[in-house]
Amino acid sequence: MPCYGWARTPAMADSTPPEPPRTRPGWLASGAGLAGVVLGAAAVMMGQGQRPEPAQPQLPTVVPVVQAPAAPTLVEAIATTRASVVSLRTPGRAGAGVIIDPRGFVVTNMHVVGDVLDADAAQGAAVLRARFADGRELAATVVVADKVEDLAVLRLVGADDERFTAAQMGRSSELVAGTAVFAVGNPLGLSHSVSAGIVSAIDRAGVAGNAVPLIQLDASINVGNSGGPLFTDDGALVGLVIARDQQAEGIAFALPIDHVRGFLTAITDEGAPKAAALGITLGLDRALPEPVRALGYGAGLPVAEVLQGGAAAAAGIRAGDVIVEARGERLDANPGAAAPSALGQSFAQAVRAMFPGERIDLVLVRDGALVRLEVEAGAASDAEQTFIDAELVLGVRLDRSAQAPTIADAIATRGLGRYGARVRGAVILGLLGRETGDRETLGKVLAELRVVMRSGERDLMAWVRLRGADGGEALWPISLE
């Protein structure tokens, strides 16, 4: 952080008051009264014997300008971050990673180390090597891999007491278009290559099917940059490079470091990571209020209820507010804006893609005026997480009004969802050989499955025992994708 010195004011030339002038005999001062009255102040001045010296004007104190320390140059920023970047190489892939803990923990993209995870144990473990800028190489092991987030955490295999240079994490939420950034990677196997550019845009949603809004940048990115860090010019880590546009030059994307930070926090918590939640219920069956249309918005999400103690309540959201913008994008620009249910589902998925602790900027209409708020997402409750996991893992929506885990509808082609209307109204009695006749138990099993699915394991099959609407019971096979 810049350090600023204290300003010193210049000392006064002479802080001692001037000596009064000497006086002559006050002959007029003791004269006739008339003379004293007529002459007035002149008599007094003459009685002092001379004209007084003009008063010194009050001059402003001149404070010298304090020069802030110069921002580091690009060369200096690269030099200070160089030791925190490693080039990664497996038998079939190349990429990069960044050290985020002095004990040797590295974060990168999961697809960079994919062939290590896919290696057949009978053939021996695939070798994963991390190369430093000075040419030193160390082996690395995969500690955590998450297919959904395309993130992996590695551990460098060094001496037990060795400490490594970790990157300084910044805040991607503070980025704006035009911010100068540079990426460090391993393009085409050229270790520790640097490319510089600017942030072209923030919060690019829906890129390459990614539910997390990405940072768009114009730096030159090639195969092998994946997993490498994105730094600002002061050396702060603000993202991980994940993709480039195959059909355009100079368009690439990075995962915001705020999201990566949420991921790292989630994997260190006990139990399965939970989805983010705002603590609101949307009134999707309500018509768009006229004051919202008067402000030029063609779509919005009315807030029907605000959960006390939730993230939305803490941020100041109230029942009756209408959400019209999220992350700087108008909701009426969403492809599903014409259908309230589709718009609500899109918004819910965007929130669920966040981790607890991430922040989202919202614009609301309240009493005919726009209100801008930043909400720090909380974690979904256990009960809410069960409904979320039923959609993510099983592809079905549970009936919220039923005490038993009852399927209200199939909403996807995965899991039970691929059976469509045939499972509608069925109760989920068992999963993975465990009884799940109540929502709480089902939630625990689904959380375990979610962790397995995120690990990237393939060809996972499971059996679900259902009691149909006609009362009959049967086992239904599903694949976990």
Describe it.
By secondary structure, the chain is of the alpha+beta class. It folds into four domains: 81-157, Trypsin-like serine proteases (Thrombin, subunit H, Beta Barrel); 168-268, Beta Barrel (Thrombin, subunit H), CATH 2.40.10; 276-379, PDZ domain (Pdz3 Domain); 385-480, PDZ domain (Pdz3 Domain). It is built from ten helices and 27 strands. The strands form six sheets. It has a six-stranded antiparallel beta barrel. The chain is globular and about 70 Å long. The two termini are 46 Å apart.
Task: Going across the biggest sheet, name each strand in turn.
Answer: 1-2-3-6-5-4
How many domains in all?
A: 4
Share of residues in helices: 10-25%
Rg of Cα set:
34 Å
| CATH-level-4 superfamily name of the largest domain | PDZ domain
Largest sheet properties: 6 strands, antiparallel, barrel
What is the CATH C-level name of the largest domain? Answer: Mainly Beta
Low-pLDDT stretches are: 1-51
Number of strands: 27
Distance between the termini: 46 Å
CATH architecture descriptor text of the largest domain: Roll
CATH domain fold name of the largest domain: Pdz3 Domain
Beta fraction of the residues? 25-35%
Number of helices: 10
What would you call the structural class? alpha+beta
Mean pLDDT, to the nearest integer, reads 83
What is the 3D shape? globular
